[in-house]
Structure formats: C-alpha cells, structure tokens
Write a structure and sequence with these properties.
Length: about 190
C-alpha cells in the first residue's frame, strides 16, 4: 500500500537511489541537479547543482552512504558528498552519454556505462583503472552481484555480458561469453 507521496514539481526524475540507511532519497533531474529528500519527513533537504544544464541519466549512492556518483549527457562521471554537496572528483573518459552507474559492494570501484564500454574508476581519485570492452552498441544498464566481483552489462545490441573483475582490475578486461541473446532467447554458457 502507498505510504506517502513526494511532489517533485516541474522536475523530471531522471535517476534516483536511496541511501543504505533508508533515510534519504536522491533524485537527479534533466538540468544537472541532484535533489536530496528526507523520506521520513517527505521534505527536500538540499539541492546539489553538479552539472548545470547537463541532463543526469545515472545516479548511484556509495555503499557507505556518504557519497553519490552521477553522470549523463555530459560524458563525465562525478562524485559528490551527500552532506555538503561538494563535488569530490570528476572522470571524463567516456565516448558517449552515461546511462548507468554501479558500485562494487565494498565501495572500492565505481563502474560507469557509457558509449559501448564500461569504465572502472578508483573513486577516491576518480582515476580510470580499467575498461570492459565487448559491446557493439550503447551500454545502458549495469548490475553487480552482491559480495562478489561479477558485473553484468546490457546494451542496445540486445545482449548481456558477464565480467569477472580481478582483485585489482587491469586496464582492459575481455568479455566472457555471451549470457543472453535477445534475438533467439537462448542462453549460452558463461564459464
């Protein structure tokens, strides 16, 4: 059953995530602002203007709940403190818009889906430490298996790819065999 309604007004909810403690909802809009909502009080706490005029398409809160990563049409990944709104770092190495972000469960790496690749970032320095290359078209979604180093990515070509990240990701990681092909709905083995 419905327990409440948060009125966003004229803002478009492009991406959103809830802090691990369940206290806050972060909503990104099409004008480059992240809105921090207090869920218990159903009120806006603050706005973080992070990429003015840049539509944010992806947002992910870190596992410790202290920072938020976001990206969009500006082709940059940014990390900001949730409490202060201060931008801590920016990574600018994507060939296309960023449509999804995901943290490894321990917070040691941030993954971004943009163009036909997935970039792996060291979040404290916002340094790119690896590339997952294997998609032929735009990568749209990411999923990370809990308590593991397995990443799934899905793109416009209709395929999901599975990646196993080493403890310290190299600069380039080859794709493992295809998991699902939309065209014939078959599942092939992924070693």
């Amino acid at each position: 059953s419905e327990t409440g309604v948060i009125e966003l007004g004229p803002r478009l909810a492009r991406a959103m995530d809830v802090t691990p403690d369940g206290q806050r909802l972060l909503v990104a809009d099409h004008e480059g602002t992240v809105h921090v909502w207090n869920l218990a009080e159903e009120r806006l706490e603050r706005e973080i203007v992070v990429a003015e005029g840049d539509a944010i398409e992806a947002l992910a809160i870190s596992p410790d709940g202290r920072t938020v990563a976001f990206g969009g049409w500006g082709r940059a990944v940014r990390i900001a403190e949730i409490e202060s709104g201060r931008v801590l770092g920016t990574g600018r190495d994507h060939a296309g818009a960023i449509f999804d972000l995901a943290w490894l469960p321990d917070g040691s790496r941030l993954l971004s889906a943009g163009g036909s690749t997935v970039r792996i970032w060291e979040p404290e320095l916002m340094e790119m430490v690896g590339v997952l290359d294997g998609h032929e078209q735009q990568v749209m979604r990411l999923a990370v298996a809990p308590q593991s180093n397995v990443v799934l990515s899905g793109g416009d070509e209709g395929r999901l790819r599975q990646w196993r990240l080493p403890a310290v990701p190299p600069r380039h990681v080859p794709a493992t065999p295809l998991l699902v092909d939309r065209d014939d709905a078959t599942t092939s083995g992924a070693g």
